[in-house]
Amino acid sequence: MPMLKSMTEWAGNVKFRLKLFVSYFLLVSFIVIILGFTYYQISASNMLRNVQESIGNVVLNNNQLLDEKLRDIRDKSEVLPIDNELYRAIMDMKSYDNEALIIADRKITNILFKYFGSDDIYSSFIVTPEYTFGNSVRMFVEPDNFFRSKLYRASIESQGDLAWVPTYSYAEAFHEDGMKELSFEFDRLISAVKELNLTFIDDQGIFRTMPQGTKRPVLMVSLTPEFMGRLFTEYAQKSNMTHLSYGILNKDGGSVISSSSVGDSIEDRKPSWFDEAAANKRGSIQQVIDGRKMLISYSQMDSTGWISYIEVPVADALQELKAIRSYSIVFLAVMLVVSALLAYLLSIMITKPIIRLRKAMKMMERGQFQVQVPEHGHDEIGELVRTFNGMNVRIQTLIEENYASRLRQKEAELMALNLQLNPHFLYNTLTTLYWIAVENNQQEMSRIMLSLAEMLQTTTRNKDETWPLRIDLDWLDKYMYIMSSRFQNLFTVTYEVDERLDKMHVPKLFLQPFVENAIIHGLAEMEEGGIIAVKGWIDEDRVIFSVEDNGAGISRERIDGIKSGKVRSTGMANVEKRIKLLYGAHYGIDIYSTEGQGTRIVIQMGTYQESTIAEGGASA
Predict the structure, then answer these.
(1) Which keywords are on file for this protein (predicted)?
(2) Three-class SS of residue 348?
(3) How many helices (H) and strands (E) does the chain have?
(4) Which end of the chain has fewer CB atoms < 10 Å from its terminal CB, N or C?
């Protein structure tokens, strides 16, 4: 926490240009690195998928070729026992006559060549207790050793079916102890063995079989591991993946062939992924083997149930990605340099106007308000500069106006001192006239003089812009008395004002101009029956007053002229201006009138706040 606090304080003291540069650079760097990492991951995923598909196709093609070859061997092995020539050659053979054995060997060898003469087959024999028939150029199998081998046991256990004995040692399988230390071509073989129950149909159509108790001959067809893995070897040679390995596993997981070694099926060396592969029969697995992540593609052979596989380290599968990684690093480095340059230019572009503003503000501190910052562009910073320049001009203007206002205020104070006695003198004069009227028994005149004196006293004592509505209504009532004395029997006045508004502060004498207009312009031409209604009420959150008369009314053209200012109405304009200044531009005066039917003036002001009215304050 202390370290974080100190780092925060340090960051707070760093210059804005450096903050902006670092922030932009880090943001762009973060985006570039994320994009680079994402691109690398997608490329790796696609490349791994392509390698997986490629080796999967190789495994599948190898299985298809092997299945085709092994099925061909199986099919021919099923036809061989019913070959008439083979039956006669075996049954007519005299084991004690060497010449007869040689003749039989030639016949049987030709028969084997007819069935198994393909170059893909390493050797083919028919083994009897007396002799091994077949081409012995490549290899030779002693009958006694064969009938003691696991190959013979496999042929017996298969009960007439073709049995495959994968990858065995010739010397060990046929008990050739003298050959164990030697290296020879057929050291490792994969053989198919089958006990042959020979049958024959003679010329009379009689079906003949081998006599009971006769030991059945055994067919032995051998393939080399090189043939089984030929397609894998070709792919490995063409591939640039140095650690690629391949192989075929038997049903128990033992090795049939392997790129690393060829040997007997060994149970304890069964791969850890074998059970999953045996269950799925075909697919791909990623697994960590000996500390390396490996990609294994596998497929099960239909003919034998063996599983072919190719195993590749994921690192080798992605080795071509090294070039992409190098290009990506170079690209990221270039982008970071470009982003740093752009961040620097952007920081200068943003902070340069701010530095100018700071210098201008320091000059303003020294009283130099005439300074102007150069304006460039129409963005937020440009708008800020223009606002600063405009503010500077207004401050200078306000200073000048304030200085002139103080001069005028001093002049007004001097004038006020000179005229201070005039209202008091006028009030005393009206009071004197009131007492003269009383002494001469002129009651009406005396009341007019008293009302006028009280009106004058009320207005001169209150110097504020507003006063309570009750005072304004009292003043208006005295004014109406004077006007009613002038226009006898011409009009009557009614008041309908919400009592809650009595203490509300309103503009001084705001109703008087409208009442005066109603009398002079609306009712002057009438002889009697004039009505002036003054109302005040609360409408939701607004306070509304109205002055309504039943006089001559106002034409639409004159109303439009008053609103536009073309027709001068000093009192009305004065009141509306004061209302807008006190309460806001949303408030003011509306005129509703029809010629010959009267006029209604509606005055909207303030927002009704009961607490404020109760305290006697202004409602604005």
Answers:
(1) Cell membrane, Kinase, Membrane, Phosphoprotein, Transferase, Transmembrane, Transmembrane helix
(2) helix
(3) 20, 19
(4) N
499-518, pLDDT tens digit by residue?
Answer: 999 888 888 888 988 888 88
190, 228 Cβ separation under 8 angstroms:
yes
- For residue 198, what are the CA distances in angstroms to 117, 128, 204, 384? 21, 13, 18, 108
Residue 328 to residue 314: CA distance in whole angstroms: 20
Question: What CATH architecture applies to the domain 465-614?
Answer: 2-Layer Sandwich (3.30)
Burial class, 147, CB count within 10 angstroms (exposed 0-12 / middle 13-18 / buried 19+)? middle
Cα dihedral: 26, 28, 33, 35 (round 10): 150
Cβ(57)–Cβ(310) under 8 Å? no
Between 533 and 413, the more confident residue is 533
| 620 vs 608: CA distance, rounded Å | 8
- Give the residues across from 169 on adjacent strands: 188
Q: How many CA atoms lie within 13 A of 298 on its CB side?
A: 27
Question: What residue segments make up the domains of the chain, in order of their start?
Answer: 54-317, 369-418, 465-614
- Compute how many other C-beta atoms are within 10 angstroms of the C-beta atom of residue 149: 24
Indicate the CATH number of 54-317 among 2.70.50.60, 3.20.20.70, 3.30.450.20, 3.40.50.280.
Answer: 3.30.450.20
Confidence of residue 147 (pLDDT cuts 50, 70, 90): very high
Residue 576 pLDDT level (bands cut at 50, 70, 90): confident
Measured from the Cβ of residue 518, the count of other Cβ atoms closer than 10 Å reads 27
Torsion sign over Cα 130, 136, 142, 145: negative
Tell me phi and psi for residue 197, to 5 degrees.
-95, 85
Q: Which residues contact residue 90 at a Cβ distance below 8 angstroms, ignoring those fewer than 6 apart? A: 104, 108, 126, 128, 198, 210, 217
Average pLDDT, the chain: 80
Q: 441-492 pLDDT, tens per residue?
A: 666 676 677 777 777 766 666 667 788 999 989 988 888 888 887 777 788 9
